[in-house]
Amino acid sequence: MPRFAANITMLFQELPVHARPLAARKAGFEALELLFPYDEPVHRIRDGLVQAGLPLVLINTPLSRDKAGRRGLAAVPGAEDAFAEAFRRALRVAKVLGAGHIHIMAGLAKGPEARDRFIRNLSWAAATAPDQSLTIEPINPHDMPGYFLNDFDLAAEVLDTVGAPNLALQFDAYHARRITGDVVGAWAAHGHRAAHVQVAGYPGRHEPAGGEIDYPAFFARLEADGYVGFVSGEYTPEGRTEDGLGWLA
């Protein structure tokens, strides 16, 4: 079975952020992801990770406070300086926390100019941090209208164009279901590009159990295909986090 990580931005919200890593370890998770580790002193988060003894597998690039940067900046024409500043900040935080991957958020944009800017910014980021693993993630337009990277085929095209060894796909099964209607089919087409996997139930984005995604079959497919990364629970619990962890078994 896969190695499971907890997205502690969404799970264990009844606890302060720095206390969530230990709760995740006690619940049986083997790693963590924290989407935006920028609002709490980074040393407090680091101390929580050390106490729990769990690795931080992923963070996102930070969001700016203005309207243009609410969903990232990498594909936003004219925002290259702001993107560079945000990416450098993510690198600093990733170094302190030992984050395995940095998810580079594309932002709200569309059209050929946005595609070109996305490719240029990704190429720059990959060259700037050659030892840091970077990811991009297709996000469905129902949950995030206007997000540039909203299709797996587009993600594959971008990854091939950039051609950087430290840039890979972040495969979210919930988004794959909304975008393609076929999680296993999307994985069959694009899973070889993936460095990180996220899961949530569909259609409600709660626990990855029941619903319309056959997660036992998906996990078996990951194992059969030799996927060695983490699978992160990135979902909104229906109740207390601990009460909904039966899916881990």
Class from secondary-structure proportions: alpha/beta
Number of strands: 8
Mean pLDDT, as a whole number?
A: 96
Low-confidence stretches: none
Helix content: 25-40%
Oligomer: single chain
Give the strand line-up of the largest sheet.
1-2-3-4-5-6-7-8
Radius of gyration: 17 Å
Give me the number of helical elements: 8
Order of helices and strands: EHEHEHEHEHEHHEHE
What sort of overall outline do the alpha carbons produce when their principal axes are compared?
A: globular
| Ends apart, CA distance between termini | 10 Å
Q: What proportion of the residues form beta strands (DSSP E)? A: 5-15%
Features:
249 residues, alpha/beta, 8-stranded parallel β-barrel, 8 helices
Provide a descriptive summary of the structure in words:
This protein is of the alpha/beta class. 37% of the residues lie in helices and 14% in strands. The protein has 8 helices and 8 strands, in the order βαβαβαβαβαβααβαβ. The chain has helices spanning 20-27, 42-52, 80-97, 112-128, 152-162, 173-180, 183-190, 215-224, and strands at 3-7, 31-33, 56-60, 101-103, 133-136, 167-172, 194-199, 230-233. An 8-stranded parallel beta barrel has the order 1-2-3-4-5-6-7-8, surrounded by 5 helices. β1, α1 (20-27) and β2 (31-33) form a beta-alpha-beta unit. α6 crosses α7. The model has no long low-confidence stretch (mean pLDDT 96).
